[in-house]
Amino acid sequence: MMTPSWLRSMVVLGVLACGAALVTAQGRGGQAGTAFPGGRMNDDGSLLPAGPVSTLFSQEAYTQYEILEPGSEAFAITYLLESARAGATEITNATRAGSMGTNISVFDPRTGQPVKFTYDLGANGQYAIRATLPFPVPEGGIGRVLIYKTYTDARTYQVSGDTITWVRSLSGYRLGVVLPKGYAFVSSNVAAQMSTLPDGRLKLAFANPSGQANNLTIHAKKTTAAFTPSPYRDMFFDDVKTLYDLGAPEAGTFSVEQTYSDSRKGPTATLDILTYLPLSNLKVVDLDTATALTPVKSGAVTRVTLGVPITNDKQSAHLRVTGTGSDGYRLVNGELVFDRELHGLRNTVVLPAGWDVSGVSQSGTVGRTREGRVFVAFVNLNAENHFRVTIRARK
After folding, report:
1. Rounded distance between C-alpha atoms, residue 185 and residue 227, angstroms
2. What are the structural domain ranges in the chain?
3. Fewer CB near the terminus (10 Å): N or C of the chain?
4. Does residue 266 carry a pLDDT above 80?
């Protein structure tokens, strides 16, 4: 199985999701050429090649923007971000140039309690939140903070009569945008899930599988329609990601590593993965503290007792489940076949060393690890939480 430290080194942190939107030059030419969302190009308009894909999963941060009253030029932001750097004592979140940050508060998602932070002008001339973690990030763990803040930016939020326009380059991966109450969409240029919140406000939820910027423009107008709350949950708030590390196909087994946050209230967390993926050698770790938790089976349900019970909406448990599976993996006439139902938003399948992918039944991103192993990464943009995938490979 891949070591957790190797996996953590591959994680792309979402610390820029509410800060400046940056595009990094890759491949030939370094910083040469002109940047545009998704890459760089030469002066003659030809594209500079990007480097090979090597990131197993997209950004970890989740960001929600709530557009406030017309004329305020303001929008409230909820930002959940993390750091996997062992020993880190704080997480920094910069304010994007041109935006003014106010009404800032920071919480520990594990306990729901406030944490200390500063909001100061840095040497680079940019304001930034520096949130102090409750304790240094432990080896094998992940530090998290939940930030609430309000930005004022007249370039982003514009009003003309009864219509509003909200335009922003959103460089996060999992995103939500909420209209002011009493407003309806005229248009939105990014494909998104739409729902009505309990208070009648309309919300968009979406993701960019590549992790690149979403250049979003929303036009909305005043309405007298009374919207009924939708039963749809924000599918992109779900941070679950599952790694399938395939062993030799002759053996027909694979290692599984799933990380996710569970916000269901109570002193225990139910391991839902076991309802669709039987695992041997089961282990569970509390990622906030890197503490091993003991799974206890009761009938068809397996649970772990949390170090801190979940009692309020700011809390969640951050868990890593590992084990060994075998269902749906075999060797057929010299061809590797991985064929099974995958669950959740993000799934990545890593082939054994020396095998090259020859067919994938669903849309996925193909890349190679630093060790040269081929992987296929899937992002499920459909509301259905499960889908069947067949991967074929040859040596």
Report:
1. 12
2. 60-153, 161-237, 241-394
3. C
4. yes
